[in-house]
Amino acid sequence: MATDPRRAVEAVWRIESAKIVAALARLVGDVGLAEELAQDTFVIALEQWPERGVPEHPGSWLMATAKHRAIDLLRRQRTYRDKLDEVGRATPQAEDRDLAAELDDYVGDDLLRLIFTTCHPVLSAQARVALTLRLLGGLGTDEIARAFLVPEATVGQRILRAKRTLAEKRVPIELPLPGEAAQRLASVLEVVYLIFNEGYAATAGDDWTRPALCEEALRLGRVLAALAPQEPEVHGLVALMELQASRIPARTDPDGAPVLLQDQDRRRWDRLLIRRGLDALARAGGTLGPYVLQAEIAACHARAATAAQTDWDRIATLYDVLAYVWPSPVVELNRAVAVAHARGPEQGLRIVDALSLPGYALLPAVRGDLLARLGRAAEARAEFTRAAALTRNARERDLFQARADALA
Amino acid sequence: MRYLMLLKARQPDTAPPPELMDAILKLGADATAAGVLLDTGGLAPSALGARVGLYGGALSVTDGPFAEAKETISYALYQVRTKEEAVEWASRFLALHRDLWPQWEGETEVLKVFGPEDFGAPA
């Protein structure tokens, strides 16, 4: 084989690890233990495959080996409990489960259970993101740490604590009840979109985007859409991410500096992703959830061949609806931009002036832009200077500073 | 990162077994559900195509079929994290043929498509 055997094992493991962890988690009832068992299996493959050759069906081999290890463990635990019974200690009788049959359930439901567990509201947003990337993305702590610019030890601790919290709070690895499904799904979508956004507009660091993180979020979103195709918001989120990602090639200039939407070379937008995004939006079926609405807005941009052809009236109206169903200062800020395009900068400024977003660099940046368009250069300059001081992203800082300098 | 896969094969005299077609559809559905298969399509025999060339300053059009041992019969576009993952998906596709249509022989070219990661911002 031309490729390095170790990397070949890693590739198969990455494709299969989420499914394996998901199946084991349902069986042993603990995501931490499930991951350990899956990791053991990976190590066995690393030892055996380079010597004996890659099995004919490597994915099935990994799953079967992992299942055997889990069944062995559960049998040992049962034997232990039986021995305790013999010496006269009272323990609840372990029901005689048909372990092998249980493991052969449809794997899709296992994955969905795992996603709902790693995105459980009992965990902090940071913990949900790290655990999801770890268990569903199969990313190493080093990769997650690099993506979020935090020390590897911090990510390791975060994941460890998350797994412990799930065990201590006895969070069951199961599909949510119908009554709470919508709320739990919202938490899952939020985690995926957080991952995407960290790749799309990095909050800190020297790079404007991290496309690999966007790709991982897109992959998770597509997995989710296959698992829960009846949920319009899942398709809305996928549509939103596909459409946003279609612009990635045009969002930075050759020096790595950000290029704003209206200045982007639209020939560099990814037509395949636009098509996939519009298809996903069609599957969402026109419901008015926050992701579907945002995807509709992104679709307006995608359909405009030039910036001048953008249907700002429709975008402003969509933002009016979005601000109604999902009120937030950030949505209001975006609405202000759309309204300024559709109905004039004074109207936009009126919305911005009612907003308070302490520490959020884009608020003074938008305000500066509207003031500049109204000819109030000195005030605009002060706003851009403030925006440059607030952002933690080096590329964004340069952009804001350049706008301030241009207004001198 | 994206990989374009071109499947090339010499068609055997026997017809493809229906189980193979089912298995191929299932693999495609699996890869789609895994979020890695972006696009796929079958390609007609080269007899129905043409080749447009530029040699010595002159354009030339050659109708198919082309004198090649193997025909290109389908393509697929994957988005995966490593080359080895792309190779694994291609291997699974060929493994189905090994298991279900023993007379079949062919190969998949796995070609990396340049993406934003190849033109990253300077450090």
How would you sum up this structure, described in words?
The complex is a heterodimer of chains A (408) and B (123). Chain A has 19 helices and no strands. With 408 residues, chain A is an all-alpha fold. The longest helix of chain A is centred in the N-terminal third of the chain and has 29 residues, at 58-86. Mean pLDDT of chain A is 89; it is low at 90-96. Chain B is of the alpha+beta class and 123 residues long. Chain B has a four-stranded antiparallel sheet with strand order 2-5-1-6, covered by helices on one side. In chain B, strands 3-4 form a two-stranded antiparallel ribbon. The A-B interface holds A 3-4, 7-8, 10-12, 14-15, 56-59, 108, 206-209, 211-212, 215-216, 218-223, 226-227, 248-249, 252, 254-256, 272, 276, 395 and B 1, 32-36, 38-39, 77, 79, 81-85, 87-89, 92, 95, 115-117, 119-123.
Main beta sheet of chain B, described?
Answer: 4 strands, antiparallel
Hey, roughly how much beta strand do the residues of chain A contain?
under 5%
Report, as a whole number of angstroms, the end-to-end distance of chain A. 63 Å
Which protein chains are joined by the largest interface, and how many residues does each one contribute? A-B, 39 and 28 residues
How do the SSEs of chain B run, as a string of H and E? EHEEEEHE
What oligomeric state best describes the polypeptide chains here?
A: heterodimer
Through-space gap between termini of chain B: 20 Å
Structural class of chain A: mainly alpha
Total number of helices of chain A = 19
Compute the number of strand runs of chain A. Answer: 0
Give the proportion of residues in helices of chain B.
25-40%
Shape of chain A: elongated
Mean pLDDT of chain A: 89
Q: Are there runs of chain A of 5+ residues with pLDDT below 50, and where?
A: 90-96
Q: What shape does the CA trace of chain B take?
A: flat
* Average pLDDT, all residues of chain B: 90
Please tell me how large the radius of gyration of chain A is. Answer: 25 Å
